[in-house]
Structure formats: structure tokens, C-alpha cells
Amino acid sequence: MTSADMVLPPQDDRTLPAVVLKDIDTRPLEQALTELQLLVEQAGHVIVVCSRATPTAVQRRLHTLRSLLESDRIALFTPDLPPLGLAALVRQLRQLASCDLGPGVLASAGRLLVHYIHSGALLASVARLDRVPVDLKQHARSWVPGSQFAVLAHPQPQLVRLGPEAKLDGPEFGTWMLVAKGQLQSDWVTSTLAPSWNVQGLRETPLPAESPGWWGTGKLIEFCTYLPDLSVLYQLVTSVRRGACHWCGIEVIGDRCVFCSATPPVPEGHPLAQRA
Hints:
Layout: H1 29-43, E1 46-49, H2 56-69, E2 74-77, H3 83-96, H4 103-113, E3 118-123, H5 136-141, E4 149-154, E5 158-161, E6 176-181, H6 188-196, E7 201-204, H7 211-215, E8 220-226, H8 230-238, E9 242-244, E10 251-253, H9 271-275
Parallel strand pairs: 1-2, 6-7
Antiparallel strand pairs: 3-4, 3-8, 4-5, 6-8, 9-10
Helix pairs in contact: 1-2, 3-4
């Protein structure tokens, strides 16, 4: 991780700690390079999870470090999730890291588990929200004093003005909910949304520092649902077909290697192979 406030408390006694690459964009390049190289030597493989709300300078520095190390043992993972949902995903990967999964499968698991996270927020304004479609009428209503909006960013964008009949499409399987309160006073998420989604448990956590920038306002309450049980996560990951990367040989889930970024070669006789 690149931010300490994105590291959630352990979900169980097997959850491994996360390493935070602090001030990666402001420290001397040589110092950051040495730190990342040491991590690779100690762990064998490193999965760096970074929010898309992270400053561009941080993301550029990460790519620079990976290029300088010329290593296929560093995976850079930037899923399209709001900060709180991303923090929940990272904790799931920390849980799975205690299991008998290879580094390629573990890194690939993030792409799989992201589909089981519902992530959104209750906002006082959508005037500066640019990560979820906002129509002109909703934009105009955001200037009305007292207006609030329930927004789902993932897995399918949805935005409704808060009212007696306001609802968001939730998961169709059992989950827990994580709530992080910003500068907005409301109990709608915990008293209305959580019961309507039939969540099995609810926890509160501090709001990530990147959340106001992601949602366009500090007057918000961010929430996400996730699968908390390690046994369920492990079953999901191990039930998916695995394959070996044709380039670096590491075992992965899916067609694209998370470490060397190679994709499977085009089979002979395929139209693309013929054009090549």
C-alpha cells in the first residue's frame, strides 16, 4: 500500500500485516529503490496495491521503480474501486496470503474478488463527482440546501436522491458492511441501507484520506460490503481455472500475467495470427 490509512485492522488472527511504502514520491529515488528491492528479496514477490485516487506522482514513481529493478516479481494493481472498497480488498488479499497460494494466484485473486465488493457513499453534493455519471437535473439538485445523494460506484454505477423510496441495488449474497464517516451527519447507511442489503455484520472505520478527493466532497459517509470469511475467499479463488504464464512461467488466474503483463500467444490459424 502507499497510504497507511488504507490498512484496515486484521479480520482474523491469520491476516498478515501490510507494508506501507510511505512518501514514495518525495523521498530520494535511491532510497525508495533500496526499500522496494529489499522487500522483493525478503518476500520473493511483491504486490503493490494503489488507489486510482492516489496522486499521479506516486503512480509514476511506482512504475519507475519497477522499471529500474527490471523485475517480474513486482505486480502493480490499481483496481477501479473507491478508497474504502479498495482497503477492504487489500485486507482480503492479506487474509489469503496466509494460505497455500502462489504469488501469481494471490495477485490474480484481486481481479476476481473485486467483483464481490459493493462500494458507494452518501454525499451532500454531487457537483464535483466525476467518477459516476451525473445528469444535469441531479447536478442542479445538488445545490439545493439539505440535499443528499446515495451513490453506488461499483459494481454498477447508480445515483439516487435521498428520499423515502431511495434505494440502491445491493449484493445477492451474504456480506458484511464497512462504514467510514466523513463530515456528514446521517444514519441512513446504517439504519436503512444495511438492513435492505441484509448485511450480516457492520463495522465502522476512519475515513481514508483519499476519499474526499475520490467522491468530490468531504461531506460524505462511505460504505462497502465484502466477504469476511477466509474459507469463502479461499474457495472462490481455488475454484477458478489456473494456468502458467507462457513468458515467466508463474501460475496465474486469467489470461494476463499480473507480474510480467504477458498475454497468451495467438494460436496458429487464428485470424490475428494470419494477419501478423
